[in-house]
Amino acid sequence: MPDLPHSVVIVGGGAGGLELAARLGRKFGPSHVVLIDKAESHIWKPSLHEVAAGTLDIHREDLSYFMLARESGFTFIQGEMHALDRNAREVLLLSVAGSTGLEIFPARRVGYDTLVLAIGSRTNFFGTPGAREHAITLDSTEQAERFRQRLLNLMVRRIPAGQHGDDAGGAEPPGLDIAIVGAGATGVELAAELLEARAGLAYYGLHGHGCEMRITLIEGADRILSALPPKLSFAAQSLLESRGVEVLTGLRIAGVSADHLSDQDGRRYPTDLCVWAAGIEAPAMLGELGLETNRVNQLVVDAQLRTADPRIYAFGDCAQAPWIGQNSNLPARAQVAHQQAAFLYDAMSARIRGAPAPSRGFAFRDYGSLVSIGHNRGVGNLMGVLSGKSWFVEGLVARLMYMSLHLTHHLAVLGFGRTAALALGRLLLKRGTPRVKLH
Ligand SMILES: Cc1cc2nc3c(=O)[nH]c(=O)nc-3n(C[C@H](O)[C@H](O)[C@H](O)COP(=O)(O)OP(=O)(O)OC[C@H]3O[C@@H](n4cnc5c(N)ncnc54)[C@H](O)[C@@H]3O)c2cc1C
């Protein structure tokens, strides 16, 4: 009997998993490379704050996994992994229902020779009462869209009758209070993007008329972007404050209700819309695989990104991997997932060929961090690769560099020609579409 091809099954087609599947697919083809994702289309997760603000149209940005599979030469299976049968070497998937509720794929089992888990992370509410029920998160396109539609509805509802489009005066409608809990990159970028959305909504007559959108960014640490150098935090804070965002630091939210937040001293903060962006955890299902996990459910992997099961690897946000040379673990960032995908490409290629995997460990190259503060501004620190020194960058240069990260992801997934065509197409489309998605 001929040998069956060695199959590498990657679960999670996000910032890291899709890049790995596309690169392996182009080299080895669909009989060797299988990608499983619970969604039918892909969006680069760091764009979700733009979807939430309505400045990016999800229907123009997302890419169908079936199309990507066809073009990059991997097999795509849609389904949500809910368990693993390690003895049979099978991933167990839930059935998939379409938008009408009709089952489109039954529950299935997918066999693997090597399994790579890249299922990302989700919001961590840290057990805060009411947060899960009343706050919106930015974990998926559905949640980002939910926020956008709620924001739009609340804005429209506040326009007094007869004033849709003209400033007729009269009784002042109540303002709209938006609270963002957590001022890491996600919270800061969302606050800045909402400022862009506010300007776009005003342009179309959906903001103003006495209804002010008030944005409050709340952080428990003593500065925003606390994982980044202080200079960056202060630059970002002063940019946000100069554009009207209220920034509250050293404030811990102890409860979330439908119309207000409360802190640990019982003070109340009125809110019409609350976004929770205060931390992450990996899906709880990872704790049930019989493999070591940490307190936020991340699979513990070694420097080669292997779990204790030699057939199972994990990377990206769902894994706790050592940061070689830093005596700590790698941060949950798109840059880490991107570089780990390139590292695993070599390891998976060796396994498919039946050769020994490279013995070197994954060494993260920190090129610095960039945070977008709107469409024309950003702040960041860039690390000199040779000198190890860091440079502070801001303004349009930082924003353009930030955009290049997204481009790098598209290049890894689509290749040069298609990325260029897509970028040009989107640029042209922008001229004929509203600045903010209005429907
Ligand atoms: C609004 C926002 C802004 C951000 N900005 C930045 C930034 O500026 N810079 C930066 O470095 N990082 C940023 N991040 C973090 C960055 O998005 C993540 O670190 C990165 O996406 C992690 O990549 P990943 O491949 O591990 O997971 P993800 O990109 O989250 O992909 C996980 C994939 O797994 C799929 N999946 C999940 N569970 C299952 C399951 N059970 N079965 C099948 N499929 C499953 C999901 O559908 C998804 O496609 C931001 C995050 C957010 C939310």
TrEMBL record:
Cofactor(s) listed: FAD
Q: Which UniProt keywords apply?
A: FAD, Flavoprotein, Oxidoreductase
User: To which species is this protein native?
Assistant: Parapusillimonas granuli
Q: Which PANTHER family does this one have? A: 64 KDA MITOCHONDRIAL NADH DEHYDROGENASE (EUROFUNG), APOPTOSIS-INDUCING FACTOR 1
Q: Where is the signal peptide?
A: none
Q: Which SUPFAM superfamilies match?
A: FAD/NAD(P)-binding domain
Q: Which GO terms describe its molecular function?
A: NAD(P)H dehydrogenase (quinone) activity
The protein's matches in Pfam families, at most eight in alphabetical order, are given as:
Pyr_redox_2
- Residues annotated as domain FAD/NAD(P)-binding: 7-341
| Protein's UniProt name | NAD(P)/FAD-dependent oxidoreductase
Taxonomy-wise, where does this protein's organism fall, top ranks first? Answer: Bacteria, Pseudomonadati, Pseudomonadota, Betaproteobacteria, Burkholderiales
BP terms from Gene Ontology = aerobic electron transport chain
Q: Which family does it belong to?
A: Belongs to the NADH dehydrogenase family.
